Amino acid sequence: MKLDARRFVRKLRPAGRPVRRRRIFRRTRPAPTMRWRGGAAPPGTSFARVKSLEARLARTPLEVRYAQKLRYHVFYEEMQAVPNAKARLARRDADPFDAICDHLLVLDHSVTQIGGLARWRRNPRVVGTYRLLRQSVAARHGGFYTQSEFDIAPLVAAHRDLRFLELGRSCVLKPYRTRPTVELLWQAIWSYAYRHNVDVMIGCASIAGTDPKELAVPLSFLHHFALAPPEWRAKAQPDRHIDMNILPKDEIDPKEALRALPPLIRGYLRLGAHIGEGAVIDHQFGTTDVLIILPFARIDKRYSTHFENYDRAFALL
Fold first, then answer.
1. So where are the chain's domains?
2. 29-315, what's its fold?
3. Distances (CA, A) of 233 to 19, 85, 158, 174, 266
4. Which helix (H) or strand (E) holds 194?
5. 268 Cα distance to chain centroid
6. Dihedral, CA of residue 263, residue 168, residue 145 and residue 87, to nearest 10
7. What share of the chain is helix, strand, coil (3-state, %, to 5)?
8. DSSP-assigned beta bridge partners for residue 36
9. Strand positions, DSSP E, 177-249
10. Which of 119, 133, 228, 309 could hold 233 in an S-S bridge, CB 3.0 to 4.6 Å?
11. Would you give per-residue pLDDT tens digits along the chain (317 residues)?
12. How many CB atoms lie within 10 A of CB 155?
């Protein structure tokens, strides 16, 4: 006679006691809306979508970590920036400003990545990101990140009736550096700025390299052809100021100089952006930074009409 182990165990169990079966997998609750020190971020606001690509705000801290990992890959592994020990260990580009910013993401829904406590949960891949910091939030938390490189306080004070938005930490995964992805990002920024009544966008833009002599052509071009008028001009911090007026204006070939500029800065200039006075060398990232100042009133009518029409069409979907 064979011994039935289950029946034997049942006999040993006290009578009247309910049998509980152990759950191997527990149900996970939906991720809560991310709440930062700057207030509750809109719950995953989606701004635009083209085929499998979607531009929206990060919904959870996990998605912010994905953006930080993308920034680390682009800045430190691809562009050879020098990470500190904490960043190297975590393989994430992070700083205290991440906690008060909104994080704009471009997600590819045709590709997934696994992460978080629920290891079996698959998430759309983060392939692009922008960090957005509104003036009202910055004022409550010590100011803009840009202030560490450029003295923008007088500029903001001179335009008290306008609302500023800081753009920063922009990067896109290499295979996605195409026109559709860039247009998707800009459409999302336009929609975000419109919903928050933003009047002026500012931020640091980088040129690879730390030797001003080697960057004489693009820096001099920006100084002579794109310098902000006095009422919009902000200067590099005195202890970090690098003169951009290296070559005389008549020695510069504008076409050659434009080709020497990164696509991001060329895009800002096409929209109608100004450039601040002086540049700043960022040794950690191996770049020379310039200040972008883009009043919405300066944006070329062709682009503003395109963004507005796209925004209306997306709102009807």
1. 29-315
2. Aminopeptidase (3.40.630)
3. 75, 37, 10, 33, 19
4. helix 179-195
5. 15
6. -100
7. 40, 25, 35
8. 39
9. 200-208, 235-236
10. 228
11. 555 555 544 554 555 555 454 443 333 333 333 443 334 345 467 888 888 899 999 999 999 999 999 999 999 999 889 998 999 999 999 999 999 999 999 999 988 765 544 444 577 899 999 999 999 999 999 999 999 999 999 999 999 999 999 999 999 999 998 888 888 998 899 899 989 999 999 999 999 999 999 999 999 999 999 999 999 999 999 999 999 999 999 999 999 999 999 988 998 998 899 999 999 999 999 999 999 999 988 776 655 554 455 444 333 33
12. 22
Among 219, 224, 220, smallest CA distance to 247 is for: 220
Check: CB of residue 293 under 8 Å from CB of residue 234: yes
Q: Computed from CA positions of residues 99, 294, 262, 219, in that sequence, does the dihedral angle turn out positive or negative? A: negative
Cβ-contact 106, 124 below 8 angstroms: no
Instruction: For residue 286, give the H/E element and its range.
Output: none
Vertex 231, ends 225 and 306: CA angle to 5°?
Answer: 65
307: helix, coil or strand?
A: helix
Residue burial 282-315, b: 16+ Cβ < 10 Å; e: rest = beebbbbbbbbbbbbeebeeeebeebeebbeebe
| Residue 177 φ then ψ, to 5° | -80, 70
**Residue at token pair 């990067």:** 171
Model-level pTM?
A: 0.79
Q: Strands 35-36, 39-40: parallel, antiparallel or unpaired by DSSP?
A: antiparallel
Pairwise CA distance, residues 249 & 232, whole Å: 21
Residues present in the chain in total? 317
Could you tell me if 244 and 220 are in contact, meaning their C-beta atoms sit under 8 angstroms apart?
yes
The residue type of 25 is F
SS3 for 128-144 is: EEEEEEEHHHHHHCCCC
